[in-house]
Amino acid sequence: MTRLSSSTLGSLPASVRRPGYDRAALTPGIVHLGLGAFARAHLAEYTDDALEKRFGAWGIIGASLQRPDQRDRLKPQDGLYAFLKRAPSGPELRIIGAVLDVLVAPENPAALVARLAAPETRIVSLTVTEKGYCHDPATGRLKADHLDIVHDLANPDAPRSAIGLLVAGLRARKAAGLGPFTALCCDNLPSNGQVLRGLVRDFAALTDDNLASWIEANGAFPATMVDRIVPATTDGDIAEVAGLLGLDDAAPVIGEPFRQWAIQDVFVAGRPDWHEAGTQMVSEVAPFEFMKLRMLNGAHSSLAYLGYLAGHETVAEASGDPVFARFLQGLWSEIIPTVPAPQGVALTDYADALLARFQNPAIRHRTWQIAMDGSQKLPQRLLGTIRERLKAGAPIDHLALGVAAWMAYVSGTDEKGAAIDVRDPLAAEFKRHATQAGRNAQALSAALLGIEAIFGTDLPREERFTKAVSGHLDTLFAKGAKATAAALAS
Ligand code: NAI
Ligand code: CS2
């Protein structure tokens, strides 16, 4: 079948929305590190919408620091790909035009550094996953002993890490007498702009105090809250999209219709008219971040672990199970009091909307995918909330079950005794603890709570928390996830 490309765009069915601007005239303005599924279904779509409102030099150059990457799929398509929105009411298909090219760092790091240093590069955005920041999740600080950081300090012009690449690009711009780009973190991190600023400054200060001072004085690191549920694309999705397009597309993305983007409006060299595309340009992102990271992502992670253990492959299946739907209500009742609601938002309505989004049968978001990298996710999704509830002397039963379910998951064995493919930067450490503790919940919970990079030094000393977690873990091992969650509701 013929391939989607600039020359075949005109042969698409009329029902397929395509870029509403002169794509042949589009030039780069943004470099995006981590051009995975989410950025192509969120930032790139918002940028297409902004370009339709007011055209400008805001094309996106994708940059992959790791293999596999999208370059080999997107280059033959001139960067074009389909975005298939799956709503319960049926599919909606559009071709996204904002991505112009993809560079692959392992192949030619100098070209990538040069792209960041180019005068036309005004924004460098990131979705490199929580683990891509080489930081300590409990503190947000740079791990100077991280293998990629050690490499990049020794090879500053051939960086392997996102932080090393940002600093290399900023160093080149300073040397060329250019101003910095705006570094726009779009990952699910708490205070993501401030965390990124600290990581970049700390890395630069390890080699060049003048550069660190220049970045601190001139750089821009806006905070953001990003939201759209975008599961990994499957071969079945690719076949379905080909059938709908009548053309082959090697790199479609799948997502829900819902999207939200709150952005702190501090940019040093301009930005696309994203506000014309429905983003919320704000001075303070924190209320949006607390609401989303705690209520959506805290529920997502808890449901992913409990649902996986109970044998549910997707979030829709797990949240469609009445036992886990009731668990979510109990969890949100513990989270909502810790969230300073954004103006005009009723958090109980937000929770109802989340449940409907989770239960969307058209979105197959695997519990296994969400369960990944829990060591990098738990602090901002569950542990910050738990700290506030402990301080307030408020119940934490559902929150503690979310943590206990993570422990049962990373023990590496499911309820049928089968091995779990645990993906996490700390997976080897989890395996060591699980081997030593076996199914002894007290021993395993104590060992995992002792991981300071996740739980800090305060939570392991909170007896109400440690007892709740080890008690839930004991019940999970003895009775399974569904019975444990059901017992909470009774
Ligand atoms: P993905 O797996 O499709 O893409 C991840 C990208 O990060 C890839 O380009 C990969 O090469 C890169 N990457 C992974 N580890 C890295 C490392 N250590 N250093 C540098 N680059 C690295 O995942 P997806 O769906 O695009 O999600 C990426 C991030 O976007 C998430 O971790 C989250 O922070 C954020 N996000 C995702 C949402 C979703 O529903 N998928 C929704 C909201 C936010
Ligand atoms: C998910 C998020 O994979 C995960 O950890 O919880 O990617 C989630 O889909 C998004 O944050 C939704 O906006």
UniProtKB/TrEMBL annotation:
<protein>
    <submittedName>
        <fullName>Fructuronate reductase</fullName>
    </submittedName>
</protein>
<feature type="domain" description="Mannitol dehydrogenase C-terminal">
    <location>
        <begin position="285"/>
        <end position="476"/>
    </location>
</feature>
<dbReference type="InterPro" id="IPR013328">
    <property type="entry name" value="6PGD_dom2"/>
</dbReference>
<feature type="domain" description="Mannitol dehydrogenase N-terminal">
    <location>
        <begin position="29"/>
        <end position="275"/>
    </location>
</feature>
<dbReference type="InterPro" id="IPR050988">
    <property type="entry name" value="Mannitol_DH/Oxidoreductase"/>
</dbReference>
<dbReference type="InterPro" id="IPR000669">
    <property type="entry name" value="Mannitol_DH"/>
</dbReference>
<dbReference type="InterPro" id="IPR013118">
    <property type="entry name" value="Mannitol_DH_C"/>
</dbReference>
<dbReference type="InterPro" id="IPR013131">
    <property type="entry name" value="Mannitol_DH_N"/>
</dbReference>
<dbReference type="GO" id="GO:0016616">
    <property type="term" value="F:oxidoreductase activity, acting on the CH-OH group of donors, NAD or NADP as acceptor"/>
</dbReference>
<dbReference type="Pfam" id="PF01232">
    <property type="entry name" value="Mannitol_dh"/>
</dbReference>
<dbReference type="InterPro" id="IPR036291">
    <property type="entry name" value="NAD(P)-bd_dom_sf"/>
</dbReference>
<dbReference type="Pfam" id="PF08125">
    <property type="entry name" value="Mannitol_dh_C"/>
</dbReference>
<dbReference type="InterPro" id="IPR008927">
    <property type="entry name" value="6-PGluconate_DH-like_C_sf"/>
</dbReference>
<keyword id="KW-0560">Oxidoreductase</keyword>
